[in-house]
Amino acid sequence: MHTSSAMQACIDDCLRCYRICLDMASSHCLELGGEHAKPAHIQLMLACSEVCRSAAHLMLLGTPHHRHLCAECAEICEDCARDCERVGQMEDCVRACRDCAESCRKMAG
Amino acid sequence: MHTSSAMQACIDDCLRCYRICLDMASSHCLELGGEHAKPAHIQLMLACSEVCRSAAHLMLLGTPHHRHLCAECAEICEDCARDCERVGQMEDCVRACRDCAESCRKMAG
Amino acid sequence: MHTSSAMQACIDDCLRCYRICLDMASSHCLELGGEHAKPAHIQLMLACSEVCRSAAHLMLLGTPHHRHLCAECAEICEDCARDCERVGQMEDCVRACRDCAESCRKMAG
Amino acid sequence: MHTSSAMQACIDDCLRCYRICLDMASSHCLELGGEHAKPAHIQLMLACSEVCRSAAHLMLLGTPHHRHLCAECAEICEDCARDCERVGQMEDCVRACRDCAESCRKMAG
């Protein structure tokens, strides 16, 4: 492993946010229906999950290009956290998105 | 399909660049060796391939968040095109990266 | 490119099926609601999309391990085609899944 | 979370194997050169990494189709472990592949 411990922590946070967003979008949100299953909310959850997955991938590849993707990942995680607060009953997802956004901002530095 | 024809063209360009970067990195470059197989070159090719794949994914999801990822994709494609020109014998990849960068800049608009 | 024309055709079919499944699941199906937006249908569409994406990836990498993933991709595409026929108004997706299943069976050989 | 603790453990093992294979292929192996940087070895490492990533994705989606992909993931992890033993200096990767293969066989059950 060539990566610093700060980067390892950011990869952890990205992969945790990826897992929670994908899991909750495809089960919890679709089962609850209503605001939780509106296309815009599911699309944002799935997009957040994809960008977290891809930011982790670039850090693992060991290329300095991860910086820009981490900056973008922090933005989409904040948007996803806000939308999850709006629909409610998404506490785990809000927390994972906020933690990931904070880690990614440090990496984007 | 909800997507405009400009977006369909950008998805096409992203997936073509993804294919060519991944194919050339894992076969052509590793077989040639030398500058082509240096970690920094392979890492950049694989990172470019991943970001193109992910930008296409966000456009397909139908979320407005694709804009930011397309802006980032244009940057990494330009960097990848330059590095491919430097090592040489990478004409297909240079062209796919430049085409994708141009499409992505329009989407990022 | 080291890949045969049959493999190039299979990569094309996998990426087309990936695009259509992801696009229709996240927009068309969620907007229609009812049977189209039930968790099991959306999960199957997203799983089919992911396996097609990954089968294309293994073929692009140039490893003989694509065979096993292509066999699995053919199975999930057939299941997805059947479920899309059941819910109706999914003709494009049914066709893309069947075409991809046929290409993947040839590759799995 | 709808997933059992056995499935959570398998997702953990798949994502750990994904991380280690991708990290070692793109840095450690390319830097060492020789047998470590031969196309067939790098391709197998990247393919193993992709299949682990995709098996985790299907488990997170909550679809029963993860079974077939887990069976395939166990196979490619065993092949990757054997090839890593052959080239040497890949102990972390051998262990992650073997652990992931064992978890995936249980899920494929």
From TrEMBL, chains A, B, C, D:
CDD domains referenced in this protein's UniProt entry, alphabetically: DUF326 (cd08026)
Gene3D superfamilies: 1.20.1270.360
Membrane-crossing segments per the record: none
Highest taxon, organism lineage: Bacteria
PANTHER family: CYTOPLASMIC PROTEIN, CYTOPLASMIC PROTEIN-RELATED
UniProt-recorded name of the protein: Four-helix bundle copper-binding protein
